User: What shape does this take?
Amino acid sequence: MSTTRLTIKDVAARAGVSKAAVSLAFNNKPGVSEATRAHILETARAMGWEPNLSARSLAAGSGTVGLAVCRPARQLGLEPFYMEFISGIESVLTERSSALLLRLVRDLDEEIELQRHWWKSGQIAGSVLVDLREDDPRIAELSRIGLPAVAVGHPSLTGPFAALWTDDAGAVGEAVRYLAALGHRRIARVGGAPELGHSIIRSGAFSAVMAESGLEPGRQTATDFSGEDGARATRSLLASADRPTAIVYDNDLMAVAGLSVATEMGLRVPADVSLLAWDDSQLCELTHPNLSAMSRDVHAFGAEAARTLYGVLSGARPEPRAVHTPVLTPRGSTAAPPPG
Amino acid sequence: MSTTRLTIKDVAARAGVSKAAVSLAFNNKPGVSEATRAHILETARAMGWEPNLSARSLAAGSGTVGLAVCRPARQLGLEPFYMEFISGIESVLTERSSALLLRLVRDLDEEIELQRHWWKSGQIAGSVLVDLREDDPRIAELSRIGLPAVAVGHPSLTGPFAALWTDDAGAVGEAVRYLAALGHRRIARVGGAPELGHSIIRSGAFSAVMAESGLEPGRQTATDFSGEDGARATRSLLASADRPTAIVYDNDLMAVAGLSVATEMGLRVPADVSLLAWDDSQLCELTHPNLSAMSRDVHAFGAEAARTLYGVLSGARPEPRAVHTPVLTPRGSTAAPPPG
Assistant: This one.
């Protein structure tokens, strides 16, 4: 295969015009006739040449979207949420013939430096910011440089950026009230990474709704969202003297792992213990029994994030919007607690 | 937030030098003293300015890697293989502070056009080509334009590109011989998308090794790799008069779905039917019983693809290499067939 590159000079020579004429034709500027412009574009196309546009106009023209994710690489491939979220973004980008520039970062400082570089050097038209923390340093740093972005998180976390969020507190309330209505008194929660804004919101909502329902404070465990951590947390909960009769998980991967642990420990789901998953990817319908879940369409959520960003890029200033709030989808893993 | 952009003129003014001097300093060219160069770079850094490099030098310098995947967006988020493969690529890119330009395409013509555009306009340093077909049109078109790439597929499919593959035929042989050694005579295979090169290789190997083992030709079903299709195929196989006593799946998602279908139909795994998964993501260890699988480290496979591409970019001409060939990992879903 040859790696010889055609230049604008080659195109000009073949078309029998000056280099300047080629440039005018491609930049759609006056100075060449319509017939000449058509001839030049056709010649270039036939030769397989495209102008080496500036990075900025490329990114703006092609609408490349940046996404930096601060998670270990292995985990990205295992947790359904991100993959579905990314696939949702891609579904909108594909319609627009745009692409996603994806990078894993080790910490938020690296992400700030990266987003700054992507934006200043013109590699992206805008970004989707995810996994917002309390007092997230990205908000000040990236709004200061004018990065167009949509921030996926509660408006209390997203500063001046367009915010897209799901009502986590409301969903936690619905989950706990459902289990309490079934008769559960000892409800535990296997939460996600404790530094994330939505973990803090869910954790606070869980405590509050347990108290409102007149229940003892339920045990809450933090994890890294992995199946392994979910299994460990479940084993610890189910081995305790006052083991819970119901467990709410912060994603579905951990709930699938929890189901396996319950079976391994000789407990029947849901007769002995009820399990309630979160996010509800296809996984929940692949287990036996199928997992009850707080369902939301993560793919559609990703698509909405991309559409909101393109809105921002066209000059919209969208209000913060709660979308795709998880709804209770009861399946085979939740029932009344065992008697006594 | 302000979107005013600094220009090279602003930097030159602040540093008290000419625009040409700023350009020389950033391009590391002679014509400015070391002290002046340092002063200019420091001034630009303090102002938050970076040169608007050409797209080509950006892509080359930052080593952006292109990946186009011809699968429906929803499926990308559900099938563990791609997510783990992408996470493996990202693990190598992160070490190099590079990013992945990811795009879903509807067909190979769209991919050819996209790769051509990415390469000609300088948005990528090279690409990873996946899901190769027999007589894949990408091979001729993309080698003709000199795109640096690694092609993930058997060397019979990859033309002049650096090839990285797994020995699918060998792995299918190992799977069938293992099940035959356990005593199975009726073995079925739930395969993937029939147009893919590796599906064709696995399908041919399955027929050949069944014949070699003196077994009746096993039934083979094509699917789209989804859990839903895997469940449908399993239901059809297990409802048939001469139902197989063992089923080999082309990924793990379909095997998980198959396990659920067997349970739903009142069949015990492995006492009544053995199930053998492929690829072996974390999913296989989350089910009960755990799924036996032809395991390979898909994350490491993705990382190897990225490293091979960077080798190609540094001028290497790597030999085709079979890596991470699946190895049999027996767990709880395979055993001797039921008597009779």
